[in-house]
């Protein structure tokens, strides 16, 4: 799991040392993600399955894509599909993903990069491995997070942020036992490059075997920790957690994680995807690729898509796609 690494974490800024009087957040809920398939058939874990939206707010959905080592000819993506009313945050850990939309946007993200797409008023979009990866096969691993937009921003014009892995704020723990990559928001005063409508924090944390991480967390944010790989514990009561599990935290000022001393050879460290945000506390009407506030707005989104008002598939398409639109 390369993402972004450094040769010597001891040269990085360090988290403050927290004492036991700190109000560490308890674990409210621990769930295990069911497996499924997305798009043209690539494997995913549905990380938020079974968690009430009220505990996720402002987040809606999280998929862990892979980890899978494709043989030649096997890599898959998604067909053309619409979005409206929210943001997609695609984080590539291993592999390469191309993306293109009906507004003329597009690009490529690879190890450690994030593609942040504000769908806003709506567009058509496709994500697929590049042609050379389809031919050769290779490792593919990433996440896609859906972040809700407040009512006032749902119909904003679409926009992109391409966040390269090297732009993330990097820091470590007082003993150098972990690497924290801040993608958006801030951790202990260290701010990531992602620009958000709703105040949120997203970070990828790699914890070496036996190491402990105490992370200050905004008291007004919720706190979600998804295990990308490895095994460890969460909280001061050391609740066990492992790959594919989500820890939903209660109120407090800090999070605590510890990596097990013994890890699998394939996953030598505990890797966490941390998410937190200020709840929007607005009604949510979510169906398929649309996240709105009311049922009437959902119906309007479907009608606009079917009438072509969310855009059309461009004539110049990525070479390994057939350009066929998807009906949700």
UniProtKB/TrEMBL annotation:
Domain Pirin C-terminal: 203-310
MF annotations from Gene Ontology: metal ion binding
Residue spans crossing the bilayer: none
Binding sites annotated in the UniProt record for Fe cation: 81, 83, 125, 127
CDD domains: cupin_pirin_C, cupin_pirin_N
Note on cofactor: Binds 1 Fe cation per subunit.
Cofactor annotation: Fe cation
InterPro entries, per database record: Pirin (IPR012093), Pirin_C_dom (IPR008778), Pirin_N_dom (IPR003829), RmlC-like_jellyroll (IPR014710), RmlC_Cupin_sf (IPR011051)
SUPFAM superfamilies, A to Z: RmlC-like cupins
Pfam families tied to this protein: Pirin, Pirin_C
Domain Pirin N-terminal: 43-147
Keywords: Iron, Metal-binding
Assigned protein family: Belongs to the pirin family.
Protein name: Pirin
Native source organism of the sequence: Micromonospora avicenniae
